[in-house]
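Predict structure. Chain length: 446.
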Amino acid sequence: KQWYQRRVAITAGIEPKLWKEFVIPALQGSSTGEVKSRVGVSPQLCTSCLRVLSSLITGSLPEKLSPEITHEILDTICKPEVNESSHSPLYIELSAVVKSVLNIHGSTISEYSCSLLFLLLRLCSVSTGDELIANETLIVQLGELQGKDLMELYAEHAPTLVEKLKGVHKNWTRHSPDHNLFGEFLLRSGPTVSTIMPDVYGIFKDCTSKEKDPELRMSMFTLLGRLLREAPTTSDAAKGFSLYSVEVIREVILPNLEWRAGRTAGMVRCAAVSALWALLKSELLSLAQLKQVKEELMPQLVANLDDDDCGTRLVSCHCLNFVLLLGGQECFDPDSLHKIYLELLKRLDDSSDELRVAVTKTFITFFSLIPEDYDRELYKAHLQALYRGLLIHLDDPNTAIQEGIYNVLVEGGKIHPAYLCDHIDNVRHKHRSSLFCDKLLALFRK
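Prediction complete.
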């Protein structure tokens, strides 16, 4: 702070029309990457120029710093070749320049409001701690100088911002500055997202296509999951995402759930199914919308129960349970349910006890959807496979699994109590403890 005050004192009184002839050209000729510019100015020298510039602005008299000079400064610092850098000290100095401009000549920056918001969001995307707080404060100040709160500021500039990003998003990688900016903007703009959903959806669709870099796709799914989890907090955002739920599932998530060899492909599947779980858990998919995607969604969820990654299997199980609950008997008849249970039985042998417990909860939902007019004789082979497979795990070493299977059979036994009791009689003597067998027999042989 003392050094900054000394720089301001030294530069105070210098006419802006004089210093801008030296500082602005130096910035315009600077390079922000590893490769030097045509005049050989490095990112380090660019940082030094910005440090001097913030001192010069602060030390200038407002009446001497004309709107024309202010606009020339803003034009320069908002250029990508100046503010897109991997040199972190440069971000601090950029923030200082913006702060100086807003403090000295804030009333004249309406014309540059969008560019400054764009720049400050970029700085927020690469900042942490006190630097992040400082940049957030500058965004608030930018709005206040124009008589707007944060949401009004975002709403005014959202169409322009997303239009700028649309022009370059097809060339993004995981580390593209504009990709990070896109995420920062969406996470901060709240209900404003609903006003630009067509463009936002288009960017997500393009950036999660199978041809894209896996790291970019994983990052986009992580961002999508955060947006979907936070959407219910504002009705406008929830409505916007809900309108696109079918498209998001069908064109963004499902293509990335398909099995492909390799660990990286597995990580993409995990990220995609996590985004699906966020969408479902936030209740952004209606029953009518589920009917549109059920035929494509269900086979993929069942297939992912057998994924190599335990996390993918677990989240897929949660999704399957939620979809069954949402669809109910209106969506799932006995024939469609019969396509599910074999994979669920297989997962009861999974290495993860957490997943096995989740499977028991899914089985409870499964049996609750069996209709009262279920043809027990026609489907007796299915009931036999279910009862036999479940009774094996009623003697599981894990008490939580035993209790989970017991609850499943309490629900499943209602379909054909006598048939279940026959199967229990056949295996009761093989169990280390007959406690749960006896409880089921007492329940169904009343």
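Summary: The chain has a mean pLDDT of 86.
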